[in-house]
Amino acid sequence: MSRGLQGQQAWVVQRVTAIYLAAFVILAVGALLAVPADAASWRSLVGHPVSLVLIAFFYVALLWHAWIGIRDVFVDYLHVFWIRLTAYILLLLYLAGCGLWIAKVLITTTLT
Amino acid sequence: MSRSARPVYLNLFKIRLPIPGVVSFLHRVSGVLLVLFIPMSILFLERSLAGEAGFADVASWLGHPLGMLMALVFLWALIHHLFAGLRFLLLDLDVGMEPAAARTTAWTVLVAAIAVAVLLALGWLV
Hints:
Order of helices and strands of chain A: HHHH
Helix content of chain A: over 70%
CATH topology of chain A: 3 helical TM bundles of succinate and fumarate reductases
Distance between the termini of chain A: 43 Å
Number of helices of chain A: 4
Number of strands of chain B: 0
Oligomer: heterodimer
Order of helices and strands of chain B: HHHH
């Protein structure tokens, strides 16, 4: 892909992920208000295969959306190249750490 | 560097941001807050699934005054980002582009986000 198309690609990804995130949040708030507040009900709601897949997609969309959004914030405020580069690397490590952690949680929940 | 040759000194106290600008800025602020809340969301999910004891831990965190305050901040950031984001998606589709309509929807987002966040917090925690 040429460099000129990268910004446009990010623009599209930001909106596609936004639509999924919005739909998930509305669904999740509804589910949270509907489910009885006890450990067993909560566990069976989150542990359902459909929930696990929706949550996995949610975190993929969330981390991708966060990467593009925070990168835009850095571009606006961090004008010194090496500071911006350092910030990108720290952001990437932060988001990757979150990704590994949620993967571990979802896999553990699936297996137990 | 050519950048340093551009003497652009803006006095931020002399700029009155129009209300769509306030909503746009808060969309950014709430987005940054939500990114900072990601590890907490995973921690809460992990603990809440760790049996009766883990579930009780999460309930007690949310029952603590500091937990309630953070839950309120999180809910505001989430709802504001959601509503302002949906408004931006509609603007992308050329819906609500007229200045008067844009101001009305901006006020709606600003007020509705606070109202829904407080209502959800009350419904959840009380």
